[in-house]
Design brief:
By secondary structure, this protein is an alpha+beta fold. It is built from six helices and 13 strands. A hairpin with a 5-residue loop joins strand 8 and strand 9. The structure holds FE2/S2 (inorganic) cluster. The site of FE2/S2 (inorganic) cluster (FES) has 13 residues, from loops. This is Ubiquinol--cytochrome-c reductase catalytic subunit rip1.
Length: 242
C-alpha cells in the first residue's frame, strides 16, 4: 500500500464523495465515495461505494463526560488523610488476620484433650502388695513400679555410691522410699529388663547382660546409666505418672 495520503489517492479516480471535517481527528473525512478502478479498460466505469468514515463516526459518537465540576480547586491535592487511613486500616486488618492464622495453626498443633488424658496414668497403690512389681504402659513405654520392703530399702541405702558407674544415692531416685518408679527400658540399647532377676536383686537385661540393683542403678554389664526416673507424683491412694 502506498504511503500516499488518502485524499490524494482518491482524488484521481474519485467520482462522488460526501466529505466532512471531523473535530475528533481534526482532518477531512469521507462518509462515502464513488470512484473508478484504474485497471479496467477505458470507458469501463465501475461504481463502488465504500465507507471510510466508520471509525470517524465512532470517534464522534464517544461522548466523554465532563468531570470538571468534581475537581478539587484548592487545598491538599494528595489527600493524605484518606491515604493514611487506608494504609492504617489495611495494616490492622492484615495483623489481625495473621494473628488468627497463627492461633489456628498453633491450636491444631497442640495435643487434643484425649491425648492429654493419655499423657498421665493413675495407678492404685493399694493394688500393689509389698515386695511386688507392677509394669504399666505409659506413652507407649513400660514403667516399673516396685513396692519395696524395708530390707530392700536398707540394701539400696547400704551401697557405696562412689563405687557406682552412674553415682546416684537411693534417696535421689525415690520420693518415698517404699515406692520405686522408673522407666523399664535398658539404658544400653533399649531392651526391657526382667524384674527380680540378676546378681543384685533388682532387674536384669538379657540382651547383653546388664544388671541393675534394687534401686535401678547399673551395677554390671554394658549399660552406661541407671534406669531413668519418669515424672510422677503421689495423690493418695493414687500414684500419678506423667
Ligand atoms: S540392651 Fe540391655 S544390656 Fe544391651
Amino acid at each position: 500500500m502506498s504511503a500516499k495520503p488518502l485524499a490524494s489517492r482518491l482524488s484521481s479516480s474519485l467520482v462522488n464523495a460526501t466529505r466532512f471535517t471531523s473535530p475528533a481527528i481534526g482532518a477531512e473525512c469521507f462518509k462515502s465515495a464513488t470512484y473508478v478502478l484504474p485497471r479496467k479498460a477505458p470507458g469501463a466505469v465501475i461504481a463502488q461505494q465504500r465507507f471510510f468514515s466508520t471509525g470517524s463516526l465512532a470517534l464522534e459518537s464517544t461522548k466523554i463526560p465532563d468531570f470538571s465540576a468534581y475537581r478539587k480547586l484548592s487545598g491538599d491535592f494528595t489527600n493524605r488523610t484518606f491515604t493514611y487511613f487506608m494504609v492504617g486500616t489495611t495494616g490492622v486488618l492484615t495483623a489481625a488476620s495473621a494473628k488468627i492464622t497463627v492461633q489456628d495453626f498453633l491450636a491444631n498443633m497442640a495435643a487434643s484433650a484425649d491425648v492429654l488424658a493419655l499423657a498421665k496414668v493413675e495407678v492404685d497403690m493399694n493394688a500393689i502388695p509389698e515386695g511386688k512389681n507392677l509394669v504399666i504402659k505409659w506413652r507407649g513405654k513400660p514403667v516399673f513400679i516396685r513396692h519395696r520392703t524395708a530390707d530392700e530399702i536398707q540394701e539400696a541405702n547400704n551401697v557405696d555410691v562412689t563405687s557406682l558407674r552412674h553415682p546416684e544415692s537411693d534417696s535421689d531416685r525415690v520420693k518415698r522410699p517404699e515406692w520405686l518408679v522408673m522407666m523399664g527400658i535398658c539404658t544400653h540399647l533399649g531392651c526391657v529388663p526382667i524384674g527380680e532377676a540378676g546378681d543384685f536383686g533388682g532387674w536384669y537385661c538379657p540382651c547383653h547382660g546388664s544388671h541393675y540393683d534394687i534401686s535401678g542403678r547399673i551395677r554390671q554389664g554394658p549399660a552406661p546409666l541407671n534406669l531413668e526416673i519418669p515424672e510422677y507424683d503421689f495423690n493418695d491412694p493414687k500414684l500419678v505418672i506423667g
